[in-house]
Fold this sequence. Notes:
Layout: H1 2-15, H2 18-22, E1 34-42, E2 59-68, E3 77-85, E4 96-101, H3 110-121, H4 123-131, H5 135-144, E5 145-147, E6 157-158, E7 163-166, E8 172-181, H6 193-196, H7 217-226, E9 231-240, E10 259-270, H8 272-277, E11 289-291, H9 303-310, E12 331-340, E13 352-358, E14 361-362, E15 366-368, E16 381-389, E17 394-401, E18 410-419, E19 425-434, E20 436-439, H10 451-467, E21 470-471, E22 479-480, H11 502-514, H12 526-534, H13 542-547, H14 551-560, E23 568-569, H15 581-586, H16 594-600, E24 603-607, E25 633-638, E26 644-650, E27 659-660, H17 666-707, H18 713-722, H19 725-737, H20 743-747, H21 754-763, H22 772-779, H23 791-814, H24 818-822, H25 825-838, H26 857-879, H27 882-886, H28 911-914, H29 919-933, H30 953-977
Amino acid sequence: MLSSLEDKFRELKLNFSLSSALRHDVHDGSPKPVGGSGFAKVVSNPKFPSHPFFKAGRFFRVRLRHNNLSYEDDARLDGRVACLKFCDKENGGPLDLILHTGKVPQYYSADTFQEFVHAFKEGTDGLKKWVFQKPINYYSRVENIRRAPDSYYDQRYYSQVTYSFTADDGVPRVARIRMVPADGSRQSGKPEKGDQENVWYVLDTGRLVDEKRKKNYLREEFTQKLNTQPFQYRLQVQIRECNIYNSCIEWDTDEVPWHDLAIITITTPLTEDLLRLTKFQLSNQVESFTPALPVSTQGFRSLVLAVKEFHGIADSIGESGNNVDIPLDKLKYYKISVVTGNVYKAGTDADVFITILGLKGKTRTINLDQKFHDDFESGQTDEFEEMGNDVGEITSIEMSIGTGILARRWFLEEVLIQDLKSLKKYRFPCYQWLTDAVLFKALVPQNEKQLSIYLMRKFEVAQRQFMFQWEDVQGLPGRLRAQSYADLPPELRFLPEKEFDLAARFAKNLSAVNSTKLLPIINWNIYEDTPKLLSKYLKDSDTIVGHWKNDEEFGRQILNGAHPCRIERVNQLPVEFEAKKDVLETLLNKKKSLSEEIEDGNLYILTYPELDSLESEDDYTKMKVKRFLTSPSCLMYVRKDGYLVPIGITLSQNDHPLVWTPRDDMTDWLIAKMWVRLADAQVHLVCSRHLNCQLIVEAFAVATFRNLPSAHPVFKLLYPHLCYAIPIGVTSRKHLYDHTDGLFQRFLAVGNQFEDLLKESYRHFSLGDLNVPLDLDSRGVSDPDKLPNYFYRDDSLKLWNAQKKFVRTVIYMLYWNNYSVQADEELQAWMQDIHEHGIPEWELAGEHNVPLSLRTVDEVVEFVTIVMFTASCQYGALTSGIVDIYSFLPNAPTMLLAPPPTERAKLRAADSKKILMNKTMTMEAIAAFSTLANGVRPEPSLLDNHEVQWSDKAILAAIEGFSVDLKRVEEDICARNSDLRTPYTYLLPSRIPKCATS
């Protein structure tokens, strides 16, 4: 039925040219457009129901066009039109609105429209007859026309079409739209008595004799004002539940009031040629807000076809297509150089588009394409010379890539533009994966002088908040609401999903392990056969394999292994060790008592209270083994030769635990140390690494994308360190622990209590845990004279200081005083979002000490340094050693197959083998550790400084200084390592990934 109706209208359009019928005055040309681009923000209004498209707070880019309905002369008696496109492009978009002066249309169905057209064709007599045929005909004619209004802005524009309005509650409703001036300007140009008494005249509707203004005075007035200040409109809606589709019946505003739906802010004038190219079509509509489909030409719903086919605004004004003549003096040539990043899969085969924006407007959307040439390949610079409107001083550019079958994420490094008339050059650094982006100089929002760019920032943030939505998880940090990689926002899906697929990487690593030759099928000996496996993974496994039983090696790994941030200084001998005080004193070699050694700062301890509430459990994975857990304490001593060694271990927290010491049987002592290492592994992999360096960092990343536009300097500082955090977080939940056979469930003793351990650790989390100097001080380990050979401490402090120096330099360039920090609404919203949703304080949890706001420049420096360091250096320190430390399972078991000993001298050397994983489990565990340690490729290191997202010379100098500082840290570490038997390399800047990659 609908297609036959459309065919009928097309036939009518061919047989009867509306333009000739409505424009009998051959001396007046067709309407000329004026307009601009800007933004629409949906308001929060509880007076109308929640809607899937018009979500409160949602931002849209928009393009607005004003024109007369029939004639070029702005002073003539004519209708006035406003077309609103919910995107800033020539074609497409989710929604177009076509609005007219006049609350009601001059016809209410397809048949009455045909009557109206034939009346016009017959001239004045025919129209007069039509006018007096029905009262509504006369009223609607008077209601729609205006004589010489003062402005396009002060008019009231109505949809004249009734829409189906499908809200989230599913209740059927209908709606009408209007657009009014936000300042309430009085409407001008309503027809006076003389015009009202002669509305049927077709030829004599020209300008009045005393009218002296130019034919284009409305267009000039609009453009001149828009060049100095924005135009702001209110988009309003009437909504009712009964299905009344007759648009010629006005709805009682007392019964069905107008409610604000969105605020439209037009900031940038568009040229006439660009407006002529822009197509506004009622076919651009969203499912939840659409004109009701007609069923016959008599029905009220058929009005939509008349509007679509005949109002002269469904297609572009004037000539269709791109053949719009532009005066040469308004054109300019631009040389455009596009640099694609030299990173993995950076290029794209899709179409790439650019729009140049300046103080005088913007160009059309330009398709950058060189025929018979592969554009935008990885590491390639492509140059184009393009003609476009003269936009004056260039302020920003908009880049986008096509959405067709060839579309792919694209890593854009930078865009260089040269105005070939003035020869002035502009640089727009990006260094991001993108689908759409607006690139402009980094400024804090209060320093942005150009309103259009300020609103562009608002638009970007609003769009991201729509795509990046928080998911609250009881007892844990907030995270992105996404169940899989496919659910991620497009700008995060910049690599194929397989790059983030831990299961695929695990399978690949397991295949490599299984390919190792010479491994016995039976009589597996974990002590003898595991080193054969490790030879292909570890460059130097001799230190661990050859010395793992030694107390000195145990101490070295606690200080400089995979989990170097747990040890604390003892200020008082823990009560559980009191029973063995005499034995412990025999292990001291400085001829001092325990109390004296404690006072001198020579005693340290490892404790794992997070494990207190967890229990041993049956294994529900396919491995089907019993898992055992305990919460040990390990007392450690700094000998006079500088070595840190264990001197006492308890394996439970009951009132009178056994205390194991080096004086016990060698096997007893060895197994006691294994239980300490098992506990340390659980806390390392679950709490220190996964919670602090992944979940917390993911929360930082979500808040950063939600609140900071790409141009914000803090976003530019943090983006290289956060770009993988969310994809890694989503995929790791899927493969590590969100099902009963995740890697952590299979190879950690906590098994299915993984989330319980996470929540217990988060309960006690404090932001100070991520502040390296504060953390070292709180643990009492910052003094190198008291605790020597703590290379993690030494190197992390050097890196912290280098990063903080760089951050301080940049931040102090952008924030001149504390007030400028407090005035940065984007920064404050970011901090508030982290406080409320990223790191929330759940019931029964302690204070996390995350501030609600940032009040001083130094607070900004401190917090940004925390985020940067945690996402890069701390992640590197807790990840790089995983394969080294855990692959030889006796050294640091992650799971033991028998309970901890409760009696002395009951174990034999062979028993230490029985409690370790079998061959199959060992091989799978090694593959799992390799999967955790080796992430997305390639991993840019802290020394890779090619992602320079800045154009400011002072900041570029700061970046260069930062690079010099990092190289100096690298040299210092290498020089120290040259004198060590076992070098500490995990915090070499060249080994630290810029962001979490696994």
